[in-house]
Amino acid sequence: MQEKYIDETKQGEAFAIAEKDGNSKKLFLESYGCQMNFSDSEIVASILNEQGYNTTLKVEEADLILLNTCSIREKAEQTVRMRLAQFKKLKKERPNMTVGVLGCMAERLKTKFLEEEQLVDLVVGPDAYRDLPNLLKETEDGRDAINVILSKEETYADINPVRLGGNGVTAFVTITRGCDNMCTFCVVPFTRGRERSRDPHSILEECKNLWENGYKEITLLGQNVDSYLWYGGGPKKDFAKASEMQKATAVNFAQLLDSVAKALPEMRIRFSTSNPQDMSLDVFRMIAKHDNICKYVHLPVQSGSNRMLEAMNRQHTREEYLDLIKKAKEIVPDISFSQDMIIGFCDETEEDHQDTLSLMREVEFDYGYMFSYSERPGTPAHKKMEDNIPADVKQRRLAEVIALQGELSRKRMVGYVGRVHEVLIEGISKKNKNQWKGRNSQNAVCVFDMQEGQKMGDIVNVFVFDNTQGTLLGETVTK
Length: 479
Description:
The chain is an alpha/beta fold.
C-alpha cells in the first residue's frame, strides 16, 4: 500500500539529538519520503548511539553519512542520487568517511550503488538495521558491506527509538512493518517485505514512555495499520496456521486502539496509513468511544474508477469506499478524511478521470496527496502494463484534481469557522513568531496569538474566527 508522506515538498531532512557522553564519532542521517522512513531513522540512530555515534547536522564533520531512502516517487530517487554524488566529492577530501544507503532503494539499487557507480560503501535494507555494527566493521576493513535480506519476524520491538529532531510533543510509534497488498503500482511489498505486527505490550510500553517524557500525541504507524494483527508473532499471512489459543487471544487494530486509549487517556492518538479493504467499522467505533483518539483518518483511494481500481489491484470498489465513508460519518459525525490519488495510471480514460472527480465531490476530503503516475521498476505495473497516458494529459488531469481538492479544502475549512476547537500547541507559527500553531482533532492546522502561561504541548481551546485554504485562524478562549 502506498504510504502517506510527511511533506511532499520536503525532499530530505537531517536530524540531530543530544550528545551521549563518551561518544566520539559523528553520524549525519538524512531521511526521505514517508513517515515510516523517519521512524526507521530513529531506530537507526538508537542502534548507532550505542556504537559510539552522536548525530550531527554538519555533513562536513561526519564520520558516517547515511541516507534513508524512498522508492515511492521517482523525484526522491533523483534527489538521493544527487546527494550521493555530492558526498562522493566530499569523500575525496575525507577518505575515512563512510557513506551508506538505507531503506527502500537499498535492495533495488544495491549493485548500481556499490559496484557500478561506486557511490557508497554500505547498503542496508529496512529489516537489517541491527546488523549495522557488523557491517560498519566490514567497511573499516576496506570491504563494501551489504545486507538487504527481508525478514518475516523483525519489528524492532525491543529498541527504544531515539527521537530525532521533532518538537518534543508529537511522535511516531511503529506498530506494523511490511505489506501484503500487491497494488500494481507500488514497490513497498518488494522493499519492505511481508506484513507483520508488533507485540502490543511493547507498543504500550513505548507509548507510556513517551508520555512520561512529555510527549502529548502519538501516531500509530504502519504501511497498513488497519491490518494490524498480533497472534504471537510472524507474518499475518500465516495466521491461518496459528493455534486455536493464538486465534482466540489475537489482538486486532481496533482492540489495540482501545488499549492505548485506555492506558493513556490524556495522550492524543492518531494513526496512519489506512487501507479501505481492511478498515473495520470497529475502528470508527473506537474513535467515537474515546475522546483522545483524533477524529481524522487518512484513507487512500487512488482512483474513483472501478476499472482503474481493478487495474491497480486495489481490493475495494468505488461503491465499497463510498459506503465505508458514509458509515464512518454516521458513527463519527465530525470525522475528517484525506486521500491519496494517482492520476494518469495505465489506460486511464477521460471517463475514469471524471469518476475520480465525482468521488472527491461526494466524499469532500479535507485535503489530499495527489500525483501523476510514474512507473516504478520492479512493480507489476512496470512489468505488465504500458505507461501510455501522455505527460500533458496527466498534467492537465492532475491540475483539475488539485484545483478541485483546493475547493473542497476551502469548503471544509469554512465549516470549522465559528466553533471552538481543542488545539494541541506543536510549535511557533512560521509567519508570526508571536503566534502558536497546532492542529485540531480533525488534523486542520490552526494559528493563534500566544497568551501568557501557554507552552508547547498544551491543549487549549481556540475559537476559530476565519480561515485560509489550509489554515484556521483563531484566538484562545476559556471555558
